[in-house]
Amino acid sequence: MSWLEVENVSLAFGGLKAVDNLSFSVEPGKVFTIIGPNGAGKSTVFNLICRIYDPLEGDIRFGGESLLGARPHEVINHGIARTFQNIELFEHASLLDNLLIGRFRHGRFSPLSELFFLPGQLRQELEHRRKAEEVIEFLDLEGYRHARVADLPYGVRKKTEMARALVASPEILLLDEPSSGLTTEETDDTAFVIEDIREDLGITVVMIEHDMKLVNKVSDKVLAINEGRFLATGSASEVQDDPDVQAAYLGGEAA
Amino acid sequence: MRVLFRKSYKQDIRLFRDRTQAFWYLLFLCIALAAPLFLDGYFLDELSFVYIYAIAGLGLMILTGFSGQVSFGQAAFVAIGAYAHTILLSRYGVPWILSLPLAALITGLVGLAIGRICGRMHGLYLAIATLSIAIVTERLIGGGGDFTGGHRGLPVPGIDIFGIAIDQSWKTYLLNLALFVGAILMTRNLLRTRSGRALIAIRDSEVSARSLGTNVAFYKAYAFFLSAVFAGLAGGLLAHAFYYITPETFGMGESIRLLLMIVVGGIGTIYGAIFGAFFIVLLPTVLSWVKVLLPGAIATSGGFDSLAFGMILLGFILFEPDGLYGRWVKIHHYFNVFPMYKRRSFQRQKTFLKTERLK
Ligand SMILES: Nc1ncnc2c1ncn2[C@@H]1O[C@H](COP(=O)(O)OP(=O)(O)OP(=O)(O)O)[C@@H](O)[C@H]1O
Ligand SMILES: [Mg+2]
């Protein structure tokens, strides 16, 4: 059974084919990793899933339903949450407020109730807070709750972004380079966190990653792409041994 | 340093963090309520202006400080509120108690329409668009003929609430105070609930706000709506304070003054709007005291007030971008940790590199 399905999707920026007739599918409860040299189109795939871009052709389905009818802010309601390659946090808000925004989809627009803080609000706020605290504990962020995000060290900011996505209680989590910019210790920690996300929270993970050590450790399945095109898929070692993949990486280095 | 111990999640949600904080706020409220006992009419009127400007400032804070949409047109909404209220009162005989909320709502709807149009704009374009709205509104009111009184203006009827005439300084003072406190509470409630967080999210990162489910265009328009409601409310109250309104009362200069007000007060905080209102209303009074001490040639020259205002503003932008409130936080901290103060406490750690952003 496959769950998230990307089918013959293409996208071009001007003359540049960023994604070229790409297909893959992700199974529930797995960690699916996308690798590829710089500029391969990995982040663009995420942006396509999240409806930031419209594919020129092809279809993206989740749980059998096409996502192409959804507007970008509706994607989360399908249970798809994400992080960004270049951390996109709410810089001037506290870590806690960042996480509470993650709960956005679990509420409704009710202006009067909010402006007058009618009785239901307190109950709702406590519920959001309880969920946020669960994630804070899960990711060991206790010490930073009330700190302004802009003041936090890089590693913590990275974790905060992951926490914010988890607070939304997604079914599938898209992580764009979770280890980039982290120290070796932090990267090891990230590997455990990703395993826990899959095992304990039962959330499917799709990640883009360059650090092969991390990829080998946590991936159930790996997809390699280059110049927007499919190269290989399989287990981490199968993909790394693939001659096309090796050529793509070597070609990238030579260029 | 006083460390804040939190014992319950409710502490972060409730209006007051703890008893000490509740005590201070209630004390301030009592002093404000008792002010008519020890201040004369002149100062009460001045304070009334502070409260009214603070309401308009809170509106602008919601729009610019929280949702991140800069507006050079806030005075246009104040004007719409003032005119709607005055016209409802004098032309249609609507009771005051209905006319004021109605005027605020009308202003809000105009704001909503403008928000729908301006929602896609950023930075400079938004600044120009809102500035044009200020100019167009002034023109429309000026050209409104008998309906708006044109450039001759309109006299504003007195306040009458259920047959009680609010005709003395202390009465209008208390009325303005009540609405001012109401506006603060609403803003605070907005900030501690879902919509308020959505506005902050949009201000700081539209892409990720969207990825978490906020309909960015919708909430931007909502910010315009709320901001206009506050401005309309302030406009209605201001009309009474002026007794007579003309389009020029709410010109472009006034819009810029409101924007400067929240910058000086401290952008992005409720305190900022309040401190800014005190600053902008009381500055002329303070300057008139200062002028007595200065040589006649300087004091009587025409541009003195504008010059002083400009210099102070420049000072803030250069040395204290967090505004009066930011300065207050630092002074407060200084006394709390005395004598261990170090300037570095407030320096941002730059432990990360911001690379290209996905927009
Ligand atoms: N908004 C855009 N406009 C124009 N070109 C773009 C845009 N976004 C991406 N590209 C181009 O599309 C190609 C794929 O970019 P993408 O960001 O998906 O690469 P990536 O695989 O994530 O690379 P990296 O490992 O460096 O993050 C690149 O050549 C990039 O320059
Ligand atoms: Mg990328």
UniProtKB/TrEMBL annotation, chain A:
Keyword ATP-binding in annotation: yes
A GO term for molecular function: ATP hydrolysis activity
Segments forming a coiled coil: none
Annotated protein name in UniProt: Lipopolysaccharide export system ATP-binding protein LptB
Domain of life: Bacteria
GO CC terms: plasma membrane
Keywords in alphabetical order: ATP-binding, Hydrolase, Nucleotide-binding, Transport
Stored InterPro entries: AAA+_ATPase, ABC_AA/LPS_Transport, ABC_transporter-like_ATP-bd, BCA_ABC_TP_C, P-loop_NTPase
Domain ABC transporter: 4-252
EC number per UniProt: 3.6.3.-
From TrEMBL, chain B:
CDD domains: TM_PBP1_LivM_like (cd06581)
Topology of the protein relative to the lipid bilayer: Multi-pass membrane protein
Keyword Nuclease part of the UniProt annotation: no
Segments crossing the lipid bilayer: 21-39, 51-84, 96-117, 123-142, 173-191, 221-246, 258-281, 293-319
GO MF annotation terms: branched-chain amino acid transmembrane transporter activity
Main location: membrane
Keywords (A to Z) from UniProt: Cell membrane, Membrane, Transmembrane, Transmembrane helix
Keyword set includes Transmembrane helix: yes
Domain of life per record: Bacteria
Cellular-component GO terms for this entry: plasma membrane
Full protein name: Leucine/isoleucine/valine transporter permease subunit
Species this protein is from: Pelagimonas phthalicica
